[in-house]
Design a protein that fits this description.
The complex is a heterotrimer of chains A (about 325), B (about 250) and C (about 290). Chain A has about 325 residues and is an all-alpha fold. Chain A has one domain. Chain A has a two-stranded antiparallel ribbon with strand order 1-2. In chain A, helix 3 packs parallel to helix 7 and helix 3 packs across helix 13. The longest helix of chain A has 27 residues. Chain A is globular and about 55 Å long. Chain B has one domain: 3-Layer(aba) Sandwich (Rossmann fold), CATH 3.40.50.300. The mean pLDDT of chain C is about 85. Chain C contains twelve helices and two strands; from the N terminus they run H-H-H-H-E-E-H-H-H-H-H-H-H-H. In chain C, helix 6 crosses helix 8. By secondary structure, chain C is an all-alpha fold. Classes of the chains: A mainly alpha (about 325), B alpha/beta (about 250), C mainly alpha (about 290). Chains in contact: A-B, A-C. Chains A and B meet through helix 8 and helix 9 of A and helix 2, helix 3 and helix 5 of B.
C-alpha cells in the first residue's frame, strides 16, 4: 500500500467515527484529539521538516482565531470568508516573523525565544485593544447553520475539523515527495551544506513558516467557531504552543503519521489520568510535561521511529 | 572561467588571505596547495560566498560574483565541497545526492534517478539506501563529491577529498576525479596528498600565509626551493639541495 | 503632565525592581554562558524558591530574610541534581533537545505546584512589609530597598567568586573552551552541574528578597521568564555586567512604560526591546559579534 492510500484509508476510517461514537463525551475527546493532530502536524512542518523549533506557535493559531472572530463581531463578515482570511493571515504573520528572524540568521535557541516573545506581544496587544475585546475577550453570536460555520451537532464540527486535518496531512504527504520537502530536510540537517549545493535556506524556511502558519491559522478559525468565545490567554497563551510541539515530538518529528500517533497517545493518556485523578487542575499538564521529558530522554525521534526500518541517528556526525 | 583579483580576507588582525590573484582556465584540473593554515579553505569560502572578502573581487564566467550568497553562486555553477564532511545525517545516500540534483530538476522521481546515476559515477551505487551517517570517512568524502556533482556544476571546488583516506582508497578516487573532468567540468582542488596533485594537477598554485608564492606545473613546483621552504621551513631547501649535490 | 515628582518615584521603583530582575537574569546568563543552553525552567524554579520561602514563613515562622540561609543552598542542590540527573542526559548531541527538556521540566514543576498548592495567591505579612524609606523625596517600600541592596551585593559576590576562586576559574575555562578544559583535567560534567546549581541557587536568593514585596502563585514565573530572557539578550548572552545593566534598564522601562501606557501595555516596551535586540543586535548591547 502506498503512503497516500494508507493516508486516505486512515482518514476514511476517521470519517466514520461520529457514526460509531454516539456519546457526546467521547466524540468530544475525538474532536480534541483530531485538533491536536492538526496543530501537531502544522508544527511538524516547521519543526520536524525545516528544523526550526517554535515555542510560540499559538501566535498563528491566535491570529486565525481573532481574524474570524473580529471580522464577524465587528464587521459582520461571513465566517467562511473569515476562514480563508484567518488561514491567510496566519501564514502572513508567520512569514513576517520568519522574515525578521531568519534574515539575521537567528537559529536554535534564539528562534524558540523569538517565537515565544512574539506570541507574548500579541497576547498583550489583544489584551489592550478594545476593538479586539481587550481583556474580556470576544463572544461570537450564536447562529447555528452551515452558512455561518456553526453547528448544533458536534459531528459536523468533527467533519469540518477532519477536512482541515486531511488538508494538512496531504500537504505533508506532498512535502515528502517534493523538491521543497527535500530542501527543508536538507536545511534542517545542515544549512551550510544545503547552501553550498544551491539551496536558498532563507526562502525554504519562509515557505515552511507559511505552510505551518496557514494550518495553525485554520485551527484557530475552527477553535473560534467551535467555542464561539475567545480571549487573549486562550488564543496566544502557552497551552496551544506546548500542545503543538508536544504532539509532534511524541509522535515523531519529520514523519507523516507521527502527529496523529502522538495526538492519540497523548489524549488516551490524559483521559486515563482524568479517570484516575478526577480532573485535578494541572494534572493533565503534569503528565504532558513528564511525557515530554521522558520522550526527549529515551526516544528523541518519537513513537514513529519505533515503526521505521532504517535506524534514525540522534547524534550529528562526528566532525 | 574563474578570475580572482586581489582577493583578501582578514580575521581580526590576521591576514588569512592576502592579495590573491589568479585565473583558472576552463576544462582543466588545477590544484591549490600549501601548508596547514595557509588560507586555502578560506579562499574557497571567499569564492563561494561563505565569507565576504575584505578586499578584491571574484569573477566567474564573466560576472562579478563577489559577496553573492552561497546558493546563488552554486546556481551559477561554482560548487564547493567541505573539508569537514557535512552529510545530511538521517537521510539516505540517495536522498543526500538528490538534494543536489534538485538544483536543476524539480521533479522528485527524476532527481532520485539522477542521484542514482551520479552515485554510480563516484562509486557509491552499492550504498544508495544506506544512512549517510553510517558511511565510512571514504564514503562520506565520495558523498560530498556526489552531492556537488549532482548540481551539474561548471566548476567544482574540492576541499581535501582525499584527506583521511588510505593509499588504496586514494588510488580509487583519482580516476573518479579524472572522469569528472573528462565529462567537461573544470576542477580546482585543495589537496595535501601530493601524489594526487602530481597525478591529477595540470597546474597548481602554492599558498603560504595567505599569499600566493608560486604557480606552475606540479612537478616543477615540487622542486622549487621557495615552495619547499614554505612547507619545510627556513633553510631546508638549501640543505636539501646540498644533500642532492653530495649524492 | 509628566514632571519630576511623578517620574522620580517611577524611576526609583524601576531601578529597585530592575536590580531584582538582574539577579534573576544573572542565574540565567551564568547557565547560558557555561552550558550554552537557555534554561526554560528558570521561571518555574524561581516559583519553587518563592514557595519554599513562603512555607518556611508560614509553618516555621521563618522570616524571608532568615530563609536566605536555607533556601539558596537547597536550590543549589536542586539545580545540581536537575542538571546531573536529567538535563545532561537529554542532549543526544542536539541543543534543541535541551530546550525541550527544560520546557518539559517547567511544565511539570508549574503544574505540580498548581495541583498541590492551588492557584491561590499567597503572600507573607512581615512587620516591615509596609514600611517605607525616603530617597530624595520619593518613598519606596523597605523590602524593595533591601532587595535592591541584596541584589547588588549578590551580584558582586558572584562576580568575585567567578574571578577569584578555583571553581570560578574552572567555570570560566569550561565556558570558553570546553575541549581544552577537559584536556587539562577539569571534570566538565561537574562544572556544568555546579554552574547550573549556582544559577538556580541565585534564584533562591532572589526568592528570599522578592517575596516580602511580592506574592507567589504557580504561574508567577511566567512574568519573570521573558523579562529575564530580555535582560540576558540585552546585556549580551553570558555577560554579568550586561545582566546588571540590562536588568536596571528593563526595570526602568517597565516602570515608565506602565506610568505612560498603563500596566498591561507598559510591558509591550519590554518585548519591543527584546525583539528589536534579537533582530538587530543578537549579540547584545554590550556583547561582541562573534
Amino acid at each position: 500500500m502506498t503512503r497516500l492510500s494508507l493516508l486516505l484509508v486512515v482518514f476514511a476510517a476517521l470519517a466514520l467515527v461520529p457514526l460509531v461514537v454516539t456519546s457526546e463525551f467521547w466524540l468530544n475527546v475525538c474532536v480534541l484529539t483530531l485538533f491536536s493532530a492538526l496543530i501537531g502536524q502544522a508544527w511538524n512542518i516547521l519543526g520536524g521538516y525545516a528544523g526550526q523549533f517554535s515555542f510560540g506557535h499559538a501566535l498563528f493559531f491566535g491570529v486565525g482565531a481573532y481574524t474570524v472572530a473580529a471580522l464577524q463581531v465587528r464587521l459582520g463578515v461571513n465566517p467562511w470568508i473569515g476562514l480563508v482570511l484567518g488561514g491567510a493571515l496566519g501564514a502572513a504573520v508567520a512569514v513576517a516573523v520568519g522574515w525578521l528572524t531568519f534574515r539575521y540568521g537567528l537559529r536554535g535557541s534564539y528562534f524558540a525565544l523569538v517565537t515565544l516573545a512574539f506570541a507574548e506581544v500579541f497576547r498583550i496587544l489583544a489584551n489592550s485593544i478594545p476593538w479586539l475585546g481587550a481583556g474580556e475577550g470576544m463572544m461570537i453570536k450564536l447562529a447555528a447553520g452551515p452558512g455561518m460555520l456553526q453547528f448544533k451537532n458536534l459531528a459536523n464540527y468533527y467533519w469540518l475539523l477532519l477536512a482541515m486535518t486531511l488538508a494538512c496531512f496531504l500537504a505533508v504527504w506532498w512535502l515528502d515527495r517534493s523538491r521543497l520537502g527535500a530542501r527543508m530536510l536538507a536545511v534542517r540537517d545542515n544549512e551550510d551544506a544545503a547552501a553550498a549545493i544551491g539551496v536558498d535556506a532563507f526562502a525554504v524556511k519562509l515557505q515552511a513558516m507559511a505552510l505551518s502558519g496557514l494550518f495553525m491559522g485554520l485551527a484557530g478559525v475552527f477553535y473560534a467557531q467551535r467555542y464561539l468565545y475567545l480571549d487573549p490567554g486562550l488564543a496566544f497563551g502557552p497551552t496551544e504552543s506546548v500542545e503543538a510541539l508536544l504532539v509532534a515530538i511524541v509522535g515523531g518529528i519529520g514523519s507523516l503519521f507521527g502527529p496523529l500517533l502522538g495526538a492519540i497517545v497523548l489524549h488516551a493518556l490524559s483521559e486515563a489520568a482524568q479517570a484516575a485523578l478526577g480532573g485535578l487542575p494541572g494534572a493533565n499538564m503534569v503528565i504532558y510535561g513528564t511525557v515530554l521529558v521522558l520522550m526527549v530522554l529515551f526516544l528523541p525521534r518519537g513513537l514513529a521511529s519505533l515503526f521505521r526500518q532504517r535506524p534514525q541517528p540522534v547524534e550529528p556526525p562526528d566532525a | 572561467m574563474l578570475e580572482l583579483r586581489h582577493l583578501s580576507k582578514t580575521f581580526g588582525g590576521l591576514r588569512a588571505v592576502d592579495d590573491v590573484s589568479l585565473t583558472l582556465a576552463e576544462g582543466s584540473i588545477a590544484a591549490l596547495i600549501g601548508p596547514n593554515g595557509a588560507g586555502k579553505t578560506t579562499l574557497f569560502a571567499l569564492m563561494t560566498g561563505f565569507h565576504p572578502p575584505s578586499g578584491g573581487s571574484v569573477h566567474f564566467l564573466g560576472h562579478d560574483v563577489t559577496g553573492e550568497k552561497p546558493f546563488r553562486i552554486a546556481r551559477a555553477g561554482m560548487v564547493r565541497t567541505f573539508q569537514i564532511v557535512q552529510p545530511f545525517a538521517g537521510q539516505t545516500v540517495r536522498e543526500n545526492i538528490a538534494v543536489g540534483a534538485h538544483l536543476h530538476i524539480a521533479d522528485r522521481a527524476a532527481a532520485l534517478a539522477k542521484a542514482e546515476e551520479v552515485a554510480r559515477r563516484v562509486g557509491l551505487a552499492d550504498r544508495l539506501d544506506r544512512d549517510a551517517a553510517d558511511l565510512t570517512v571514504a564514503g562520506r568524502k565520495r558523498l560530498e563529491v556526489a552531492r556537488a556533482l549532482a548540481t551539474e556544476p561548471k566548476l567544482l571546488l574540492l576541499d581535501e577529498v582525499m584527506a583521511g583516506l588510505n593509499p588504496s582508497e586514494i588510488r580509487d578516487v583519482i580516476p573518479v576525479i579524472r572522469a569528472i573532468r573528462d565529462s567537461g567540468i573544470t576542477i580546482l582542488l585543495i589537496e595535501h596528498v601530493m601524489q594526487a596533485v602530481m597525478e591529477l594537477g595540470e597546474r597548481a598554485w602554492v599558498l603560504n600565509q595567505g599569499r600566493l608564492i608560486a604557480e606552475g606545473a606540479p612537478r616543477a613546483l615540487a622542486a622549487d626551493p621557495v615552495v619547499i621552504e614554505a612547507y619545510l621551513g627556513q633553510g631546508m631547501a638549501r640543505r636539501l639541495a646540498k644533500g642532492r649535490g653530495d649524492a | 503632565m509628566l514632571n519630576l515628582t511623578i517620574l522620580w518615584p517611577a524611576i526609583l521603583n524601576g531601578v529597585t525592581t530592575g536590580a531584582l530582575y538582574a539577579l534573576i537574569a544573572l542565574g540565567l546568563t551564568l547557565i547560558y554562558g557555561v552550558l550554552h543552553i537557555i534554561n526554560f525552567a528558570h521561571g518555574a524554579l524561581l516559583m519553587v524558591g518563592l514557595y519554599a520561602v513562603y512555607f518556611l514563613f508560614r509553618f516555621l515562622g521563618l522570616d524571608p530574610y532568615v530563609s536566605l540561609l536555607v533556601v539558596p543552598p537547597a536550590m543549589f542542590v536542586l539545580g545540581y541534581a536537575l542538571q546531573r540527573g536529567i538535563i545532561s542526559r537529554a542532549a543526544h548531541g542536539r541543543d534543541e533537545n535541551i530546550l525541550l527538556v527544560t520546557l518539559g521540566l517547567s511544565i511539570v514543576i508549574e503544574n505540580l505546584a498548581l495541583m498541590l498548592f492551588s492557584s491561590d495567591t499567597q503572600t507573607v505579612d512581615t512587620a516591615y512589609g509596609f514600611a517605607t524609606v525616603d530617597v530624595l523625596g520619593a518613598f519606596i517600600p523597605v523590602p524593595k530597598a533591601v532587595a535592591f541592596a541584596g541584589a547588588v551585593v549578590s551580584a558582586l559576590a558572584l562576580w568575585l567568586f567567578m574571578a577569584r576562586t578555583d571553581l570560578g576559574r574552572a567555570i570560566r575555562a569550561v565556558a570558553k573552551e570546553r575541549k581544552g578544559a577537559r584536556l587539562v583535567g577539569i571534570d566538565v560534567e561537574h562544572v556544568y552541574a555546579m554552574s547550573f546549581g549556582i544559577g538556580v541557587g541565585v534564584l533562591g536568593i532572589a526568592a528570599c528578597l522578592l517575596l516580602p514585596s511580592y506574592y507567589v502563585t504557580p504561574q508567577v514565573g511566567h512574568g519573570f521568564i521573558l523579562i529575564a530572557f530580555t535582560i540576558v539578550v540585552l546585556g549580551g548572552m553570558g555577560s554579568f555586567v550586561g545582566a546588571l545593566i540590562g536588568g536596571i534598564i528593563i526595570g526602568v522601562v517597565e516602570a515608565i512604560g506602565g506610568l505612560m501606557l498603563g500596566e498591561s501595555l507598559g510591558q509591550i516596551g519590554i518585548f519591543a526591546i527584546f525583539i528589536l535586540i534579537l533582530l538587530f543586535r543578537p549579540q547584545g548591547l554590550l556583547g561582541q559579534r562573534g
